[in-house]
């Protein structure tokens, strides 16, 4: 049963990877990366159930957290060219 | 009062997540709860920015169920677009006024728009959202106005 | 009773896998960035909800279900937020959506190659 879900998620992840490599603009790639992260969270959970070890869910939860923070960090870096504090003048002119 | 509430929530989260109830593990949990509460206390003195959650509990649950039904409906319509050979896309970017008074209400409305596939909040501004639609039809405005009214209805009325 | 729950969770898991694939197919098939955003949100909402609820039904009333529901709540909040962040960053950087509906914008002339019922 879970093997079907694993195969389906695997196919979906390969398709998302195609978009990640092809994607013309930076934002296509960031979008694909974020979607890949969501698929990975589901994949880890389903694989855990398939192996009868639902402890994998801790990893899935952590992956969801890191995926969100990572997406925001990438977007922030490409907008302000800095991950830490943003200088006030660049923030004002860009916003 | 707030400190005790935070500590109880954090301790409950630890107990539910760990699932191991030996003295050492629960003791480590207690230490981390105390540490987190202490850091939060210090952060409060820096900015004093507090999260206020003022929603009607029962009405929120009702709204959530209604939202699930909306997600199901619009997921299906987007799926039909994806799987149809011609992909009938009618993209449109339009502004939707919102009537929520609190920040939380606006966040719920914007996230609900994004959560239903086919519509997506692009920009938030004072008084309106910029919304991008995949398959635009004039009825979309009415549907979004209906959702706006429902979100406003679950806000607590006492908010200034 | 157990059989009913099993069948229900199978339906949920198969539906979730279906929507996950549909989102990925849409991500590859759709012609431009703004439509791809919508394809991703199919996976983010329908796929995630159905798969996690299906797994929770399999797990029953245990701590595993609590973790699954935590993941669901977290993805429910962060999914739309990160989609909104990507869309907003793209808009700010000047990637304008093309519109198939008549608008009186200055740049409307450059965007009528998309077949649509206008």
TrEMBL record, chain A:
Transmembrane segments: 6-23, 30-50, 56-78
InterPro entries: MrpF/PhaF-like
Keywords: Cell membrane, Membrane, Transmembrane, Transmembrane helix, Transport
A Pfam cross-reference name: MrpF_PhaF
Topological type in the membrane: Multi-pass membrane protein
Main location: membrane
Cellular component aspect of the GO annotation: plasma membrane
The protein's name: Multisubunit sodium/proton antiporter, MrpF subunit
Organism: Sedimentitalea nanhaiensis
TrEMBL record, chain B:
Any one GO CC term of the record: plasma membrane
UniProt KW keywords: Cell membrane, Membrane, Transmembrane, Transmembrane helix
Membrane topology: Multi-pass membrane protein
Superkingdom field: Bacteria
Single Gene Ontology MF annotation: monoatomic cation transmembrane transporter activity
Entry's transmembrane regions: 7-40
Compartment(s) of residence: Cell membrane
PANTHER family in the record: NA(+)/H(+) ANTIPORTER SUBUNIT E1, NA(+)_H(+) ANTIPORTER SUBUNIT E1
Protein family membership: Belongs to the CPA3 antiporters (TC 2.A.63) subunit E family.
Protein name listed in UniProt: Multisubunit sodium/proton antiporter, MrpE subunit
Organism: Sedimentitalea nanhaiensis
TrEMBL record, chain C:
A Pfam cross-reference name: PhaG_MnhG_YufB
Top-level taxon in the UniProt lineage: Bacteria
Disordered, as annotated region: 97-118
Transmembrane segment boundaries: 7-28, 48-77
The UniProt record lists the keyword Ubl conjugation: no
Keywords, alphabetical: Membrane, Transmembrane, Transmembrane helix
InterPro entries: PhaG_MnhG_YufB (IPR005133)
Entry-linked NCBIfam families: CPA3_mnhG_phaG
Matches recorded under PANTHER family: ANTIPORTER SUBUNIT MNHG2-RELATED (PTHR34703)
UniProt-recorded name of the protein: Multisubunit sodium/proton antiporter, MrpG subunit
Species of provenance: Sedimentitalea nanhaiensis
């Amino acid at each position: 049963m879970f093997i079907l879900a694993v195969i389906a998620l695997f196919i979906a992840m390969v398709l998302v990877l195609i978009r990640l490599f092809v994607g013309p603009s930076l934002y296509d790639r960031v979008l694909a990366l974020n979607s890949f992260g969501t698929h990975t969270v589901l994949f880890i959970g389903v694989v855990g159930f398939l192996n009868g070890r639902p402890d994998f869910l801790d990893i899935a939860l952590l992956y969801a957290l890191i995926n969100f923070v990572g997406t925001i960090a990438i977007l922030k870096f490409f907008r302000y060219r800095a991950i830490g504090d943003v200088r006030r003048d660049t923030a004002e002119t860009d916003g | 009062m707030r400190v005790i509430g935070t500590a109880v929530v954090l301790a409950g989260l630890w107990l539910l997540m760990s699932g191991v109830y030996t003295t050492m593990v629960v003791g480590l949990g207690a230490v981390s709860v105390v540490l987190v509460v202490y850091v939060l206390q210090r952060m409060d003195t820096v900015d004093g920015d507090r999260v206020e959650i003022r929603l009607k509990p029962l009405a929120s649950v009702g709204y959530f169920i209604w939202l699930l039904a909306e997600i199901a409906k619009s997921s299906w319509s987007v799926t039909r677009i994806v799987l149809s050979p011609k992909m009938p896309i009618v993209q449109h970017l339009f502004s939707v006024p919102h009537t929520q008074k609190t920040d939380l209400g606006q966040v719920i409305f914007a996230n609900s728009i994004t959560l239903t596939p086919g519509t997506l909040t692009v920009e938030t501004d004072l008084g309106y959202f910029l919304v991008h639609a995949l398959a635009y039809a004039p009825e979309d405005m009415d549907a979004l106005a209906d959702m706006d009214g429902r979100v406003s209805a679950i806000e607590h009325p006492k908010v200034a | 009773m157990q059989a009913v729950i099993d069948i229900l969770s199978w339906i949920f898991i198969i539906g979730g896998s279906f929507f996950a694939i549909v989102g990925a197919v849409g991500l590859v098939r759709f012609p431009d960035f703004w439509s791809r955003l919508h394809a991703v949100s199919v996976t983010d909402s329908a796929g995630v909800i159905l798969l996690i609820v299906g797994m929770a039904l399999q797990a029953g009333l245990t701590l595993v279900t609590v973790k699954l529901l935590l993941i669901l709540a977290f993805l429910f909040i962060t999914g739309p937020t990160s989609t909104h962040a990507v869309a907003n960053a793209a808009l700010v950087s000047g990637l304008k959506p093309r519109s198939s509906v008549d608008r009186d914008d200055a740049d409307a002339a450059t965007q009528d190659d998309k077949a649509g019922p206008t």
